Amino acid sequence: MPMATEATLTKREEEKLVVINDCLSRKITKAQAATILGISTRQVKRLKSKVRESGTLAVIHRLKGRQSNHHIEETTKDKALTVIKEKYADFKPTFATEKLAENHNIHISYGTTRLWMIEEKLWIPRKQRKATYRSWRPRKDYYGELQQFDGSYHYWFENRFVDADGYPIEVCLLASIDDAAGKITRAEFSSNEGIIAVFTFWKGYIELIGKPVAIYLDKFSTYKINHKAAVDNKDLLTQFQRAMGQLDINPIPANSPQAKGRIERLFKTLQDRLVKELRLENITNPDDSNKFLKEIFIPKFNEKFTVIPAKEGNVHRPLLQGEKEDISHIFSIHDTRRVNLDFTIQFKNNWYQLTEIQPTTVRPLMLVLMETWLDGSVHIILKDFELAFILLPEKPKKQRIKQPIILTTHTLNYKPPPNHPWRRYAKTTP
Hints:
Elements: H1 11-24, H2 30-37, H3 41-54, H4 74-87, H5 93-104, H6 110-119, E1 147-154, E2 171-178, E3 184-190, H7 195-208, E4 214-217, H8 239-246, E5 250-253, H9 261-280, H10 286-305, H11 321-325, H12 327-330, E6 333-338, E7 344-347, E8 350-354, E9 367-372, E10 378-382, E11 385-386, E12 389-392, H13 421-424
Parallel strand pairs: 1-4, 4-5
Antiparallel strand pairs: 1-2, 2-3, 6-9, 7-8, 8-12, 9-10, 10-11
Helix pairs in contact: 1-2, 1-3, 2-3, 5-6
């Protein structure tokens, strides 16, 4: 039986040939040969017949050294690489593959694009990171059961959105992703991750989609008071916790970025894909990009990456009628101030004078709620009544005239009409 040399056979082929020859010479059985080679006895039987007929060639694949029947034409490869170098040089292989098919009618696999980009040094494979143990949490069962929410500061518009000095501006992208379905439920650009931006985001979300059962988010100060003294103080709530409590939504602060890994991975994907999509569309500002996100990017993204939840159903809850009426009060910044003796209130370097007629009784030194709405307007609330006031141009000067004792629903020099109950009772004589 002819034996192949090392120059014509690989180590695996040489081992296979030795085993089959041992089986032919009856040193081992077919079952033993199958176990050694990790194949079935039926395949061993076929190999024995081929080795008898063809010798060494029987263990060599017939396409070895020949071009595959499914090889891609060189012209296609050249065309694809030319397009990638011109337009998608900094794209990852998967995204570049999608754009080649979508915009240039070049249909190749992700693996092929990856190999070609590595050959041309357009893509450097990442080294395998050292694994660390983390407990895995299964997805929630229902759509709307848990929303993961966060903000990401990034140069989303690269050099196309700059300040007065020509430097690129970092913009914050606020986004939420459903834990069960893995779909982007809402995303919009904002200048920051402050309470006004976050309230605007969630007010729009709830009015459009409904109230989720819970929201998973950072321990960032917008959402949770991180001071050690505030950990066990139930009364020391942030604006966000207070608003969510009024809507019966459970805010869950994450103890680590990995805990809300779904939104973290989303931002990693968006910082690659969305940046390049905005570049291809030549979008240069947040306003245009928010429209692009809503109408084009998010629907296409969700169509590609959404998974089917474990259980069918949407557990978002609609706003109650009372919540609809109070939505502006709920999504406002709440502060408390004390009414001065002259019925003025100082708030954020402004002075507010309460008018003489009020919907409820107001006394000096009472605490009132100052609400700053999302549109910037200020509203003064006492006992669920909105007080009437005028904004003073400056700090009021002290007056020596007698100040009113209280403010109520009528003027201070009020005289009851003849039919008032006070006038119905005649003075009795002893």
